[in-house]
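Tutorial, part two.
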Amino acid sequence: MGNLLGRKRRSRVTEQDKAVLQLKQQRDKLKQYQKRITLNLERERDVARQLLRDGKKAKALLLLKKKRYQEQLLDKTENQISNLERMVQDIEFTQIEMKVIEGLKIGNECLHKMHEVMSVEEVERIIDETQDAVEYQRQIDEMLAGSLTEEDEDAILEELNAITQEQLDLPEVPAEPLPEQIPDASPVKIRAKPELVAAS
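Running the prediction step on this input gives:
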């Protein structure tokens, strides 16, 4: 039990995952910095206006120079964020490519092992043996079909007719000949019902 608890589990976090995480953290810090500079720029612009109203032109000019420098920093920050995001995407795409390559490698090894078990020569041999067996069976069928005598074929036809008759279950045909003329039978008179006569 102590071994189970003391054994270190292998981490599923790779070096690439750690690198991506660090890059994303840096990107987030730069975005926070960018937001802070943007707020400062707005505030300093308002302060410069106020200084101009108060007649402190030199201080307003100095503040606008500082503001201009921070705008340049803001542009650099934007470029750095863009570079970090591109690098994150490149690393993530490379990880996908590595998995695809690993899958191709495993598939290739599997195909290679299957080809070792079933070589082209083995497949050709099996196809040849199958064709030989089919040809042999055809020859046997021809010999059997050709070896029946006329008596055998008559017996086969008689058996077929007997089976056909059994399936039909028809009544037997009478042995004596049928009369040619039907004897005169007394005509049958049809009487009309009294209700029908009264209705007409």
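The mean pLDDT is 80. In part three we will examine how such features are distributed along the chain.
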